[in-house]
Structures are given as structure tokens and as C-alpha cells.
Amino acid sequence: MKTIDSLVQSSLDGKNFGGVILAKLHFNPILRYNSSYQTVYWDESGGGDQAYLGLGHLANVSVLTETNELAAQTIQLSISGIPNSAITDVFSDEYIGKPCYLWYATLDPTTYAIEGGQNGPILMFAGRMDFGTIEFGETTTITINVTNRLADWERARGGRFNQGYQQRKVDPNDQGFRYVQGIQNKPLTWGAITISDPGPPDPGDQDGGGGGGVPGGDPCFIGDTNITMSDGYYKSIQDIKIGDMVMTTEGKPGKVIDLHSHSYTGKLIGLNYREPFATTAHPFMNAAGVWTAYDVTASQKMVPNIEISSLEIGTLLKTSIGNVVIDYISEEEVTDTIVYNITVDTGTYIANGFYVHNK
Question: pLDDT digit string (tens) for 240-272?
Fold first, then answer.
């Protein structure tokens, strides 16, 4: 509800009164003008009167409609007879999105001063400037579109959601978008560090401890196991090439210097929600930084130069989302299945989110 000063109300109740529109556009510098033929002085902040240039018929405001509807509105402000120098100033300024205000004021019939002082003018419209147009003729007319704040709900947002745009507009050091594509493959855990169990385990499907796998079998993974690359994206291990850069368990890039694949007959294991994807001898890093394997004996034969403990129910493993408790280990017997491994110059990499050794 608008509050109207008593002097203004008295003028509006009379038969004759002089009314003007005051416009304030936040160009650089701020442009102030009014719809009368003389300059009037007023300052809405009370910090000292500001001159509102009288433009008379050279200024025009499109029809303002006040309704109870909560909706975006756009008006047009037109100014004619503009010098070329002013046109250059207006359209070289980054004015789009800057504030614009319109007030209605009554003038004292004798002094032509604004009635009601600081509180006299009635705010009719507040919004932000949008694009402008120029019409050339005998005189030059500039028209500025002004929209109220509700138009922000309907405004199309410019830019693109990628790393380049984020670094240009937000933070030149931002790296968040490097990992967006990989999010779709990330396991999410809400409220606990334990990845959810896919269902009650079959007692006959696991033995609950290390050494349960078939003895032997190189430390390897099936072909569609996701390897985290140094840029945060994923690549199936079967598609890795020599020279590719992968992410290591130290959080640094590592270079692939060798590839391994062979036919495998034996047991594969899956951890928690995963289908079986790893041979029983492959070392996984636990939360203490110690290597573990489902088949400790077979793993120790393949990697004799590192300490290996048992990977079993309750083991806390390191993953790309933090430490994860292993509460279910699934097994699958396979025959003549091609499995893969890679050698990284730093000795480690990340497979299906788990920290693993490269041997």
C-alpha cells in the first residue's frame, strides 16, 4: 500500500494540479529527468537535492498498469532529441540489469517545487533496465525497456555450464566442472560410510574371510571396470592405452607404462553393491594404507614385495568417496574370461572407486 503525503493528497483532490514523472536511470553517471519543461530538485534519500532535468514532450513513458496480479511487467522509457555524444555514452555503458525508478510528484502551483518534500513523490515503478533501441529521424530517440524484478523468474540465463564459463565468470581457479561427467558413476552414501547392501547375503555364496578364493589367478579386473583418469573422467580398463594418465591413490596423475590381459578361469569377487569384477588376488588398500586381498596366499605370490592382509567382511577400504566398510562380498566362478591390469609409474590407481595396486 502506497503512503501519500497530505500536501500531495490535497493537490490530487483539487480540480487543478501540476503533476510530473521523475525518472532515475542508473547509467554512469546516473541520469535524472522529469516530464515537465523545467528542472526540479529532489532527492529520495534525503542527502541533498538532485537536479531532475525537464524534458517535457521529449520524454515519454509507456502506460503503467497496477493490478493485484503478481506478474512481470515491462515498460518503455523514450527520450528524444539526444545529442550523438550522449548516444555514445549510453550504449557504451554496461547498463543492462542496472536499476531504474519512476515516481509521480505534484508541484506547488506558485514555486513549482515538489510538494511533500522528501516523502512527496509516489514510487510508481521500480525495475531493471533491459536492452535499448535507437530510432534515427529529424531527431534521435532512445527507447529503454525496463522490467520489474518479477521478470527475473522468466529471464533466460546466459552462459554455459562448463569449466571455461565458470572460470571466466566465477573463479579462475575453479575446477569443479572437471568432475561433473564422472558424478553419474559415483556411488552415493547417505548418513553413513557404509555402502548399502544389495540384499541379504546367501550364506553359501561367501566364506566371510580371506583365502576363500581359488588359489592362483593374476591380480586383474574384468574389461568394463571403470578406471578414474587424471581429469576426473572414467575409462573402462579394456580401453586404457599406454601413455594414458590415470588418477593414483595419492590424488596425483600417474602414467600408464604397460598393459596386461589374459584369459582367466577362476573366481571373481564383488564388494558390497558391485557385481563381481576383480580376481581374488588383487590387492585393495584399507583405511590404514595396508594392502588387502581376498586370497592372501595367491596375492602374496604375485606381489611378494608388499605386506598383504585379509580382505573380509568388516574390512574398512579406502575409496574415492572416503573409507567404506565391506559388509558383503559376492563371488562368481568364470571360465575363459578376459581380464585386464595396467602398470602405472607410481604403482597405484583407482578401479570402480576402490584404491588398488597396479600389480
Answer: 999 999 999 988 999 999 999 999 999 999 998
**Contact criterion met (CB below 8 Å) for 253 and 327:** no
46 Cβ neighbours under 8 A, 6+ residues apart? 118
| 64 and 93 Cβ atoms separated by less than 8 Å | no
Q: How many domains is the chain built from?
A: 2
Q: What was the pLDDT predicted at 300?
A: 86
Calculate ∠ Cα 24-25-30, nearest 5°: 90
Residue (of 156, 153, 158, 176) closest to 166 by Cα position: 176
Domain encompassing residue 225: 187-357
Q: Above 70 in pLDDT, residue 137?
A: no
Domain boundary among the residues 96, 128, 153 is at: 153
Last residue of a domain, one of 137, 153, 169: 153
Alpha-carbon distance values, 332 to 11, 171, 230, 340, 347 (Å) = 91, 48, 31, 17, 28
Contact call for residues 217 and 235 (beta carbons, < 8 A): no
- Phi and psi for 356 in degrees, rounded to 5? -130, 160
Which CATH number characterizes residue 295's domain? 2.170.16.10
The whole-model pTM stands at: 0.43
